[in-house]
């Protein structure tokens, strides 16, 4: 996903159109909207890099605040032609919480094309994503990542093996076939001649494992006896 977002951050045509639309709003409606350098946002920090260009940085957003204006949640003011990258998307759009998926948010996905928006989400299990989003989506599965290093141990090339699906129905059938039905996907390679792990923190959720344990040490017990109370919720 980060590779794709990196490409869009330097997509001259898309960024110019976005800037022109905002400038027109300023000129015609008398607004004073800031015109950003690019149109990519994410729920984690990313540094975009391209040869001969200065680094660019993703606008950091909270997926819980993506939606139309409403009285309950202060939503993000979305750019025209904005592209969103959402990591661990099931945390925000979980199918098990369908009843709590508000209209002001679901309507954004249903009408995203009217403002030329794109969403890229990653999840380990697509079935966890709310069906309203799945029905509008295309899917890819990362099957493998091959990495090449130079003699100093530095990454020089990364190649992903990718399977692409037309719709959620194809993904469902693919899962039912234990990922064996080749008629349901198109497989191809994506190559990136740079260390993409230097552009974002792939373990950005690491801090959550330490939250709530500020004054504790690791409980390195070697007997199950001490677990009896904790299993009972004590």
Number of discrete domains: 2
Strand content: 15-25%
Helix content: 10-25%
Count of DSSP E strands?
9
Q: Uncertain spans, ≥5 residues at pLDDT below 50?
A: none
Q: In DSSP terms, counting alpha (H) and pi (I) runs of 4 or more, how many helices?
A: 6
Shape: globular
Average pLDDT metric: 87
**What is the CA-atom radius of gyration, in angstroms?**
21 Å
What is the topology, as strand order, of the major beta sheet?
4-1-5-6
Q: How far apart lie the N and C ends? A: 42 Å
Order of helices and strands: HHEEEEEHEHEEHEH
Q: Which structural category do the helix and sheet elements fall into?
A: alpha/beta
- What can be said about the biggest beta sheet? 4 strands, parallel
Describe, in short, the structure shown.
The protein has 234 residues and is of the alpha/beta class. The protein has helices at residues 2-9, 12-29, 103-110, 131-134, 168-176, 227-231, and strands at 40-42, 47-48, 56-57, 59-60, 83-86, 118-121, 139-149, 155-165, 186-192. The chain has 6 helices and 9 strands.
